[in-house]
Design brief:
Length: 385
């Protein structure tokens, strides 16, 4: 089947044209999101039978690469929305329709954000420091701080989690969805970062933000788990986020190639750097590194689409993809800057912005330390205390 696409070249060109200003002014790309919404992009993963575009995860991965090549921060902001639709889609494909409301919400124009990260909590998905207080009818009220909530200016639905400590001997993590206008939510205007500035990933303070029983996805024991909801988050997040950084890396490589063809070398009788053996090797090296990322992402997205069960190695393998992508993107960013020369160091140069954006990859889960711990445990057994 030919891969389906929702993003036209014209739309991507318009988004790219706006990216530098949003970075310089530290503003959210409202026009990008409006255009993406008009193009049906926010419904990309909603199954066709629910009215959406019905793209597969693999198709969306390719689209996210193209979008990130135009504006990484815009791609990252909408990525978090797609993650939740991806979770609902995986569950529905397994016959669990408990979070199909995500499809209905998205078709009604709601925008989802990802309220998982918490200050000082490197357990990430596997244990929350926030509170989830039961309301007695199956719903919960969430209280705590969520950091780096991408798309802060526009989200209307937040997927989040907290710990139900009503039984102090057996705290349970509760995953649910709150609405922005439902009360108990404060979004701080505190995003001022080195890169990914337009993602506006501000701090979200939850103070009794309520999710009724029909918006609670699951209540599970903290700790690593293959629970389908958590696996859905883990896999959708890692694969779509990795796609963003692969698209960014491709754009850096393309810009480096253009620069090498344009820049001339006095040492080499005014010939372009494209004829310089060192520049050629540097660019080739970056391209070889990037080339290796595509098949792995394609294989993993296809396996998620096909509900393939890779058993206990799924999570370490997904984490390894994200780690390899984030490390390779740093290498490509440095090589691209070197190949493009000092001009790329100027703020007005797109590469300098992408170089800053690329660094964000290392902060997303799974962290370098966690992925090594996962693999070591898988191969050597747990660390003895
Ligand atoms: C561009 C970008 C977008 C992101 N988007 C999302 C998103 O949409 N949703 C999401 O859930 N996550 C998102 N993340 C978050 C990411 O997944 C990490 O959780 C985040 O980068 C924090 O990493 P860290 O724990 O290494 O940071 P740290 O440096 O350890 O901490 C980050 C913040 O928490 C504070 N902090 C650290 N320890 C404590 C403590 N003990 N007490 C109080 N405060 C403390 C720090 O001062 C700092 O402000 C995003 C990250 C980036 C870089």
């Amino acid at each position: 089947m030919t891969a389906r696409t929702l993003l036209t070249d014209e739309l991507l060109a318009a988004i790219r044209a706006r990216a530098a200003a949003h970075d310089a002014e530290n503003t959210f790309p409202h026009e990008d999101v409006a255009d993406l919404k008009a193009a049906g992009y926010l419904t990309a993963l909603v199954p066709a039978e629910s009215g959406g575009a019905g793209l597969t995860l693999q198709e969306l991965s390719h689209e996210q690469m193209r979008l990130a090549a135009a504006s990484p921060a815009t791609a990252l902001a909408v990525n978090m929305h797609h993650v939740w639709v991806g979770v609902a889609r995986q569950l529905a494909a397994r016959g669990d329709h408990s979070v199909d409301f995500v499809f209905d919400d998205v078709m009604a124009g709601e925008i989802y954000a990802f309220g998982i990260s918490e200050p000082g909590n490197d357990l990430v998905l596997f244990g929350s420091t926030a509170d989830a207080k039961p309301d007695g009818t199956g719903g919960f009220s969430f209280t705590g701080t969520k950091i780096f909530t991408s798309g802060s200016p526009v989200w209307t639905r937040l997927g989040t989690f907290g710990a139900d400590r009503s039984d102090p001997d057996r705290p349970m993590d509760v995953f649910g969805f709150i609405t922005r206008d439902g009360g108990g939510v404060t979004v701080k205007d505190d995003w001022d970062t080195l890169g990914m500035r337009a993602s506006q990933s501000c701090t979200t303070i939850l103070n009794g933000a309520h999710a009724p029983a029909d918006r609670i996805a699951c209540r599970i024991e903290p700790g690593p788990t293959m629970h389908p909801f958590v696996f859905g988050i883990f896999s959708s997040f890692i694969l779509l986020t990795s796609s963003v950084y692969v698209g960014l890396a491709q754009r850096m490589l393309d810009l480096a190639v253009e620069a090498a063809k344009r820049r001339t070398s006095a040492k080499n009788s005014g010939r372009a750097y494209a004829q310089d053996p060192d520049a050629r090797r540097r660019i080739a090296q970056a391209a070889i590194a990037l080339d290796g990322l595509y098949p792995q992402l394609d294989r993993a997205t296809a396996d998620i689409d096909g509900l393939v069960d890779r058993g206990p190695m799924w999570m370490p393998q997904l984490s390894a993809i994200k780690y390899r992508v984030s490390e390779t993107v740093q290498e490509i960013a440095t090589s691209a800057m070197k190949a493009a020369g000092g001009a790329s160091y100027f703020t007005k140069n797109e590469l300098s912005r992408l170089y800053r954006d690329a660094l964000a990859a290392v902060f997303h889960p799974t962290s370098e330390d966690s992925v090594h711990g996962m693999w070591a445990s898988a191969l050597l057994g747990p660390l003895e205390s």
